[in-house]
Amino acid sequence: MNMRKEIERLIYWYAPAIIVALLIDYILTSYIKASHDLSSIILWSSIGISIVFSHLHHVVVAIWLYVISKQLNQKYILWSFFGLVAHLFAAVIFLVLYVYEKNEMDSRSSRE
Questions:
Q1: Are 53 and 24 in contact (CB under 8 A)?
Q2: Which pLDDT score is estimated for 29?
Q3: Which of 63, 66, 76, 87 could cross-link with 58 by S-S, CB 3.0 to 4.6 Å?
Q4: pTM for this prediction
């Protein structure tokens, strides 16, 4: 598996997710501040939409970790949940463990 391409794929999805989240958050915040006569349904739905879109990058990392860990026969449900909660921190831990395990396997094979 080419991990560099996989990391690039994560970046291709993560960067637009951050941009979309920031834009939606800015637009909805401006809309709420500008509107003085909002019904409670519109207000709460816009707040809900803002919350969902502000966590879009967490979902992107969770999906990426799900796909990668499934390809590597890891515990993909655990990694995707951890990615949903800790997003980039989870991806970094996954990559560090992947590199560590790969180096261990290479050192064991060179000893034999």
A1: yes
A2: 76
A3: 87
A4: 0.81
